[in-house]
Fold these 2 entries.
Entry 1:
Amino acid sequence: MSSFSSCQSVREARRVAIFGGTHGNELSGVTLVHLWMKNGTEIQRRGVETRPFITNPRAVEKCSRYVDTDLNRAFTPENLSAPADGQLPYEVLRAQEINRMFGPKGSPDAYDVIFDLHNTTSNMGCTLILESSKDHFNLQMINYIQKALAPASCLVLLNEHPLLKYSTARSVAKHPVGLEVGPQPQGVLRSNIFESMREILKHALDFIELFNEGVEFPPCSVPVFRVSERVDYPRDANGNIMAMVHPNLQDCDWEPLNPGDPMFQTFDGKTIRYQGSGTIYPTFINEAAYYEKQQAFVATRRETLSANAVRKA
Amino acid sequence: MEHVFFPPLSRVAVCGGTHGNELTGVYMVREMQKQTMDKDGPVSVTAVLANPPAVDACRRYIDTDLNRCFTDALLSAPLTDSSPYELRRAHELNAQFGPKGSKEAVDLLCDLHNTTANMGLSLILYSLDWITLHICKYLQSKISSPVRVIQLNIPISEVYSLEAVGKHGLAIEIGPQPHGVVRADIYNMMKKAVDLTLEWLQKFNTGSIFEGGEVEAFTFAKSIDYPRDPTTGEITAAIHPQLQDNDFKLLQPGDPVFMSFSRETVKYEGEPLYPFFVNECAYYEKKIAFHLAQRKNLSIPTISVKRD
């Protein structure tokens, strides 16, 4: 018999936000939030105030990822406390405003849950992104979503890496959850991707409603992929990429990459192999927005997290 | 069968980055510029990035779509201080590879493009040009996956795209690839298509006879826009899952084409036609959800080079 784990009391999740357009060209979230701002019936649940919100309206207007700087990297302590003047980039001012509306980050007044809706050009399917391995409320919600979607899969990416973790828009909330669905080109709306994201949110909100009604969720295990390192493209002295993701790796998100496996193909046809010491599980393979962030893919390792039982306090 | 003779095709331009975020052509051109071109051979090939600032910004264009700037009217209108960047660039490219319609123009201009639509390898031409149709036939014979020929029947003076500058022009369009991404499989396919085109030119110039016959082509009929909100103009539906990724599969009346955000299906009404450019990112702003084409067999004569 495993060691006794107590039931964790968690404050009820009364205030929930759904963010779309954090990247203005990731259209599933933009479309869903616009839809729900017009008619929010679908996202209403007993005992929950659910607020759909477009985080980067100027980027949405231009159908570009951002205007001055990536909003989903902008919620750093330095940015949030910087004096607001005309010199700050648009997204930093926007981050401060969002922090006022849905935070302040780290305070008891912050929103309980924020779902941030994203798309990727990578073949990641439905992915939920966590920032903490110790948020038992989030782990239980994810477990609930996965069981509800089965046999369709929804995998979990955990980015708790001290150096690779970044300051997301959703980090303003007590329980931040990223939804990443792909593959979808930027600026394109695919019906299947849109409906998948919609389905994930439906189950997430169902969980919150049940939780707020006092349902206790028993201990469970949640398999995750933990971010371990970022791997860039081979580049020349001028910073231009010299190779592409190899056809054997392209579209193989979440599959094992073993030492010796093909990783990149140069433009003149040579294969570059993975030379690491152990098996990794790449994801975010060939994401359009990551060329400028020096990232061909993210290496992850498989882990199983244990979630305590949770119940409303 | 009729046998037509053409003068040698000695000057070729290969252009990439006409849309700065269609990356296969960008990297192909950069790679071609690195290899020393064989200037002694019968064919001289110049590889050029058509829209360098758009490539640097990884955007389709800076001010206006470069690939709509090459009509006779736009090329002959004088430039002013307020002319958009791409119009100036079109005049430069016309001077370098044209002038369009003149005997100084390059013999063949090949323009490399990507699309987010599932079109595989498609070759786009504007008129019944026996040279480019023979190149298409050659590629079809050498490549095992489908190679589609799309013919837009527009008089040459009104053709707006870059390849019209050459005496003979061809656009190589490969998808699906997201803009801003370079996929190795798409790159390898583009390289094969360009290599085979240059191989055909080499054979043509050295006297090979290319037998005539029939080439199946898709000829543009019309475009369909997304359903939109009459007040805001925003789209109210996405391409239906049964049409998505099914470029070149016959669309019949009653087939689903759109799925609205309230999950209603919109069905196709009209004559049976072949969809292409289904869900191309750049066409949302041009109010095109997909194009429709008829399928035809085009007859082409036997051709070979005219020996002086």
Note: The longest strand of chain A covers residues 220-231.
Entry 2:
Amino acid sequence: MNIIDFILRSSETQRLPVAVYPGLLLSGGTVREITSDWALQLKAIKALQARYKSPFALTAMDLSVEAENFGAKVLFSENEVPTIDGRLLTNAEDIEKIKVPSPDKGRGIVQIKTLEALAKEKKSDEFILGGLIGPYSLAGRLFGISEFMEITLLEPEAAHCLIKKAVEHQIKYAKMFKEAGADAVFMAEPAAGLLWPEGLRDFSSVYVKEIAAELEDENFKIILHNCGCTIEHLDAVLASGISFFHFGKPTDVVKAVHTVPDNIIIAGNLDPMEMFVQASVEEMKSKAEELLSQTADKRNFVLSSGCDIPPNAKLANLDAFYAAEL
Amino acid sequence: MAELQKIKEAIMGGKREEVSRLVQAALTAGDSPVEILEGGMIPAMREIGDKFSRNEVYVPQMLIAARAMQAGLALVEPVLAQTGHQPLGKLCIGTVKGDLHDIGKNLVAIMLKGAGYEVVDLGVNCDINKYEEGIKQGANVVVCSALLTTTMPYMKDVVEHFKSKGVKVIIGGAPVTQNYADQIGADGYSEDANGAVKLVDRLLGKTA
Ligand code: B1M
């Protein structure tokens, strides 16, 4: 059974928090270690699996991997997720010139190896997900997020050219996840949420569709994460043609799940900071239960965080997330 | 004046080169820089800011309008200075320590400039010393932006530091609320860039 059918046929609402870094609270180690050493990342993920018995396991959301592979400079610190420093590309000529690297170099391998190890041990009705960045956001990380939004409007051809290069890289990278045994990839496209709806459709969804056409089959699916968009972007996001969407705080997920057809999955959207880091256990439980009750009539809803949960989250809140009930 | 309408439209459309050309032509023709600013450029930023508040335009459209505005300001400002025209006030703006998000801060800065204020942009990752630099350059209001819940608490340190010095501190950014501003004793809060202009107008008793 694929991940979508599994969710749609489940009698209870499934839970899929975007959580790997909080695994460090159980396994020990630092963010820096698990984003550069697959065995340590595996240990953190397995510690979460052992505690929560979730049918889903996801590799770390490290959205600097692909840009680094293109040549961008990355800033590392012990307990913060790596981030890109400065701009690798500054004009249309740079875009034209840059070559698409092979994704089998660099820290992408850390993610692939982690996933491979998880897939080897997976049981039936367990699903292994690889984390990667979406095409618009990758282009933004190479060109500078702000500057890339500007050329999206002013030099759309150059913008498309860079996004196409990002697509080429991400198709190859996602194939590596697929070959390593992934059931799905979780593709994070946060920067596209800042675009106007038609812009999101033309500069992101069209390309997600292209990636999906190359990769999706009966047993391999794409989950599209967009933590920046609002309900006004829903049609534009759906234009990607895939069946599994993951939204953040700005999206009214209750409305979204009541708007889309029943075979389209909507996941979200408990805020990582507010709910997993700052809230009390009671607040977390009550917010999760509110969301469960507002979507109780829908089988196509998955309870999740609205974005990646940071390493300083509270395990008690993650416990409450899993313990929340209707 | 038709040219002012064209300048306004060019700014709202983010047409940087056209703005430069039109503003230069107007200045060469002897039009008053105050009139260009107040009749074309400022209304452009106000109108696009309103549209942004109503979700009729999005961040990219705001960013290109801001760039076009900058291009116009670069030509108008030196002429204004020569004529002895005084800005409405001088402010400094920066994203707080530990925080590298600058898109919102840049929009707030340009809206304030567009409204007639002189703005010292201190960039991102600003500690108290950095804000002090802004004050040394003549600013009497500190504008703080924060996008991370983890960096927001630093605003309290900034507010406390400047409280005794008679410098006003106003704050904003996605996780910040009016409640939080009240709690830390900030001199003001606004939800968006347009609101920031209205806030500063109120604070300094100006109507731009
Ligand atoms: C009076 O004074 C005032 C008044 C009004 C003021 C004001 C001051 N300042 C702002 N305003 C107001 O006016 C503006 C215009 O109306 C508004 O400004 P805003 O800045 O709110 O709005 C902008 C116009 C548009 N919004 C933005 O520019 C932010 C967009 C999102 C997608 C975002 C972006 C783009 C980025 N990010 Co980051 N990022 C996210 C954002 C998610 C989202 N969709 O919101 C957010 C903010 N990021 C987050 C995180 C966690 C991070 N980010 C990080 C990095 C980045 C990028 C570099 C990739 C990029 C920044 C690029 C740049 N040059 O700024 C990291 C931190 C780096 C650092 N130390 O700062 C990192 C830690 C990610 C990581 N794991 O590495 C989250 C913060 C969670 C939290 N509440 O703490 C986040 C909400 C995403 C999420 N869903 O989790 C108002 O707030």
Note: Residues 90 and 202 of chain B are 14 Å apart (CA to CA).
